[in-house]
Amino acid sequence: MKQLDSATLARLENVAYRLRWHTVDIARDHLKMHFGAVFSIIEMVVALYFNWMRYDPNNPQWEERDRFVLSKGHAAPALYTALAEAGYYDLDELHHFRSLHSILQGHPCRLKTPGVEVSSGSLGTGIATAVGIAIAGKLDKAPWRVYVIVSDAECNEGSTWEAIQVASNHHLNNLVVLLDRNGTSASGPMLRRNDIEPLEDKWRSFNWAVTEASGHDFQSLYDGLQWSETITDRPALIICHTEKGRGMSVIKEHPEHNFMLNADQYRRALIELDDIEKELVNHVN
Amino acid sequence: MSTEALDVAKAFGEALVELGEKNPRVVIVDADLADSCRSDLFRDRFPDRTIDVGVAEATAIAVGAGLAFSGKIPYVNTFAVFAAARTFDQVRQIVAYGRANVKICGSAAGLSLGYAGASHHSLEDIALMRSQPNMIVVSPSDAVETRQMVHAIAEIDGPVYLRLSRAKKPPIYDNSYRLKIGEAVILREGSDVALFATGDMVFETLEAADMLAEKGIYAEVVNVHTIKPLDIETISRAAQKTRSVVTIEDHSIIGGLGGAIAECLGEHMPTPMRRIGLRDTFCESDSTKVLREAYGMAPHHIVEAAIDAMNMRTISARIHQN
C-alpha cells in the first residue's frame, strides 16, 4: 500500500479545515444544519475529492469521471463545500445555501448543482441508484468507478439491503460504498435501539468485500480506497469509523440532529476554527 | 381493419424488441415478472441489455434511474400496482425530482388481474404518477397504439409512466394511425355528450357509443391516451360542444382520468360530469369482465352515466335561467 507523503497529508488536513470553516460560515448563528452528520464525513469527502476520484470541474458531465453519490443527503454541506473548493462553482454560492433561486438546495439536487450526480435526501435510496450507474458502467466497459457515502442508520432501511443484494448479484466491482459509522442516528445512539450490528458480517453475508478504516485518518481512508481496487469480483464496503460532529467541541454540545448555533456558540466555533488553522500552520512549518 | 384480436401485452413486448434493434441505449430492468410483462421478448433477444433485480420493485426504479443518469434509456417493468405504489418514494425522490429518463411500464393495470384480487388491482397508479412534476403519464388503448407508444416515449428525455392493459381485442386503429403524445384522439364525432376514455376502457366506450346511437344519442368519443400533459384544448372543445361529459377509466374515480378532466374543465369549461371507475372502493376477485359489470364499469353503465350527464345539463340550464 502506498503511503501518503507529509505534504499531501498537510494539504488534505487543510482542505478538511476549509470545509469545516465554510460550513460554519454558511450557517453562522442563523441557519439550522445537521452539523454532526456533516462533520463526521468531512475527511471521507476530502479523501475522495482531493486525493482519489477523477473528475473535471469545468466539465461536470465528463464521460470518464468517477461518480459520487451522497446517500445521506442531509450532510449536503460537506458535498457543497467540497464541490466549491474543487472548482465546480464559486465559493460565494455557499452563502445562498437553502435560499430561493440558489443552486444549493437543502438536500442535493442533481438538476441544480453542478457535480451532484443524484438527488438525495430520502434515506436508503443512494446505493440502489449507484447500482444502476455502476451497471451502466459495466455495460459500457467504462473505466470509471462509483463511490457512495451512506450513513450507518441507512442500514435501517430495507431498500439499502435490496440494493446491496442486487450489487453483489451483478458482481459490481466498480462500486465502492463508504459507510459513515458514527453510531448515531437522528434520535441518538443506535446501540440497543435501532442497532445494525453485526454490520460487517451482514455485508459479508451479502457477498460484499468488507474492510474497516478510521474515518478521520487520511492514510487509513487511502488504504481502504487502495484496497477497494484490489477487489475484482464483487462490490466493496469500507466501514469508516467516525465521530459525529468531529473536529468542533461546540457541535458536540448539541444532542440534537439538526440545530442552530447560538451567538455565543458561533463565536466559540470561530475561535476553535482559528486554533485549528494555527495548528495546521505549525504542522507545515 | 383487422378483426383479429391483438394482445396489448404482446404488442408491448414486440415493440420493445423493435425499439431495442433501433436504439442501443434502450435497456430493460425487470423485477422477476418478465414473462408476465412480456419484456421476456426483449430479454431473449438482448440478454446483455436486460437487468433483472429480482423481487425488488423499488430498487428496480432506482437502478433504472442510475442507468438513465449514465445515458441509458431504461424501461422498468413490473405490475402497475407495484410500479406505482410499492415504489413511490423512489419514483418521487430519484426519478421525478431528478428528472431521470426512466420509462416505468406498469403492466396489467386496473382490474386486468381481476382474479388475483385487490392486492393486484392497480386503481391509484394514475393518481400517484400524475401528482409528480416532470412525469408524463400515458395509457394507450389497443395494440396498435401501445406499439407506437413504446417508440414515442423513447423520444422524450424525461420520466414517463406507461400504463398497460391486458386487452385482447380487434384493434381500434389501423396502421395508418399516427400517435402524438399530448394529443387526445376524437374517435367518433357527436354533439350530445362527450365520452372521455383511456386505456382499454376505450373499447367499452365505443360499445356504449353504439348503444347510445341506437337511442338516437350521438356521443363524441375521445381517447385520452395521454393523461399528463392533458390535451386541454380538445377536451374543452368537446365539452363546449356537448355540454355534458363522462369520463371512463379502469382506475379509481379519485385522481385519475376523471380527476384530471374534472380539474381541467373546472378551470376551463365547467360542464356537468359523470365519472365511470372504481368509486372509492377495493374490488373483489373475479374476471375483469365480471368485475366491471359488478362495479359499474360496463358499457350499459356508461350509457346510463351519459344520459345522467345530459339530464344534469338540462337541470343546470334551468337553474341558470332562474
Task: Please give a structural write-up.
- The complex is a heterodimer of chains A (285) and B (322).
- By secondary structure, chain A is an alpha/beta fold.
- Chain A has ten helices and seven strands.
- Chain A is globular, with a radius of gyration of 18 Å.
- The mean pLDDT of chain A is 95.
- Chain B is globular, with a radius of gyration of 19 Å.
- Chain B is built from 13 helices and 14 strands.
- Chain B has a seven-stranded mixed beta sheet with strand order 3-2-4-5-7-6-12, with helices on both faces.
- At the A-B interface, helix 5 and helix 6 of A face helix 4 and helix 6 of B.
Trace the largest sheet of chain B across and list its strands: 3-2-4-5-7-6-12
Q: Give a short account of the largest sheet of chain A.
A: 5 strands, parallel
Helix content of chain B: 40-55%
- Reading off the top of the CATH hierarchy, the class of chain A is best stated as Alpha Beta
Number of strands of chain A: 7
The appropriate CATH architecture of the largest domain in chain B is 3-Layer(aba) Sandwich
Question: In which range does the helix fraction of chain A lie?
Answer: 40-55%
CATH level-1 class of the largest domain in chain B: Alpha Beta
The CA-CA distance between the termini of chain B, in Å, is: 50 Å
How many domains make up the coordinates of chain A? 1
Strand content of chain A: 5-15%
Mean pLDDT of chain B: 96
The arrangement of helices and strands of chain B along the chain is: EHEHHEHEHHEHEHEEEEHEEHEHEHH
Please tell me how large the radius of gyration of chain B is: 19 Å
- What is the total tally of β strands of chain B? 14
Largest sheet of chain B: 7 strands, mixed
